[in-house]
Amino acid sequence: MRTLRRNTLCPVLLAGLAAVAWPQSGRAEAEVAEEGLPVAVTLSDGSRLRGTTPLRSVDLQTTYAELDLPLAKVARIRFDPRREQASFDLINGDTLTGVCFPPPLPLDMLFGRILVPFEHIRELRVFPKGRPGGLALHFTFEEEKGNEVEDRSGSGHHGVLVGEARRVETPGGQGVQITQPSSHVLVPAETLSVRGWSELTVAVRFRLDRYTTYGRVLSRGREGRGGGFGLSVGGVYGGRPYHGGFSVRLGPDQSVGDTVPRYAELGRWYQAVGVYDGEAVRLYVDGKLVSSTDVPDKLRGKPLHEDDGTDLFIGRCATRRTWRDTHIVGVIDEVAIFDRALTEVEIGELHHTDGDGSRLEPPPPPPPHSWPRVMPRFPPEG
After folding, report:
1. Tens-binned pLDDT, residue by residue, of the chain (382 aa)
2. Sign of the alpha-carbon torsion through 353, 341, 214, 327
3. Where are the chain's structural domains?
4. d(Cα 39, Cα 246) in Å, to the nearest integer?
5. Residue 60 to residues 128, 243, 272, 326: CA-CA distances in angstroms?
6. Is pTM beyond 0.85 here?
7. CATH for 135-350, among 1.10.230.10, 3.40.50.720, 3.50.50.60, 2.60.120.200?
8. CB of 205 within 8 A of CB of 269?
9. CA distances (Å), origin 42, targets 36, 50, 189, 249
10. Beta bridge pairs of residue 50
């Protein structure tokens, strides 16, 4: 095991981390697990480290009890600058505050295991599902028959075609055509939950053939109650263009997002990507940033919130299930959900198509009017 060493040649990444094990504040070594949890560490100087930790739990002394908190139940730990208090955001939405003196954090990175003293950590985010940057869901709609939609990420979050949703040919292979309010792709609540996720990226390719009012492409929720996120492309209301947007839910009645003017022209392929990183909510269209909204201070860093029984609807709204104008009329292809916020460079890697579906990069296009069917594998940042 190694401990990060001070290095004047790389002060930004390694500032404040010592070459020897740090004091344990009188506490015994924390219990560790055989299989590590993915984490993202923000240091006091703003540097970031990603990897996995075998640490299983952390002690927190509150005003009423000393708690041994399983790290898998924690979404985020924040330390105040004077180290007098620590705030634990749990995956169920609760927040605990108290005094915390954990031993150095063992962190397995690309170049081996290091020890990061907690007194140099400003924030620790835990990713209970998959590794940081992990592809949590990936639909290509390439199944030959039947109503089941296979999750090609390997996470087992399979979906099903509902109503008159059917597979059709697209520039990338196959997609799903939505023509009716009752048609959509369903990923049921028992299959996928985003509750407690500290970061999120959702991506979808789509083509509109006719405008409805709302044009909801991706929607999490149950009847009358929204879920972790929603993405719409807009439509027509009262004969005028109606806005779209991307939003996330951070509490029972606390959503953050932004609206954008309707941008989708009929008959043209687009890729929309929504990103939440704890600090801001962003929307990208065809690889370019079109909207960014800062998260209010009281909600900054909060994990995604949703109730039990929250489904994922692709192609229509999941909350207003009796409304007849929340769906899209068009084709959806290449849906992906990541458990962290992708960077702009990574978002650019997801987008390689012109409006007709032809691949832009790298030349020459292989073949014309197609896009890649394999989602890029983004490694954790190290």
Report:
1. 433 332 322 322 223 333 223 233 333 334 444 568 888 888 888 788 888 899 989 999 888 888 998 988 888 888 888 777 888 988 777 889 999 888 899 999 878 899 999 888 988 888 755 444 578 899 999 876 789 999 988 888 999 999 999 999 998 889 999 998 889 999 998 888 888 888 899 999 999 999 988 888 999 987 667 788 999 998 888 888 888 899 999 988 888 998 888 888 999 999 999 999 888 999 999 999 999 999 998 898 888 988 888 899 999 887 766 666 778 899 999 999 998 888 888 888 777 543 334 333 333 333 334 444 445 444 333 3
2. positive
3. 11-126, 135-350
4. 26
5. 20, 45, 41, 46
6. no
7. 2.60.120.200
8. yes
9. 18, 9, 32, 23
10. 40
Closest residue by Cα to residue 311 from 152, 147, 195: 195
Contact 124, 41 (CB under 8 A): yes
Nearest 5°: CA angle at 100, between 94 and 105? Answer: 100
DSSP 57-91: EEEEE-SS-EEEEEGGGEEEEEE-TTSS-EEEEET
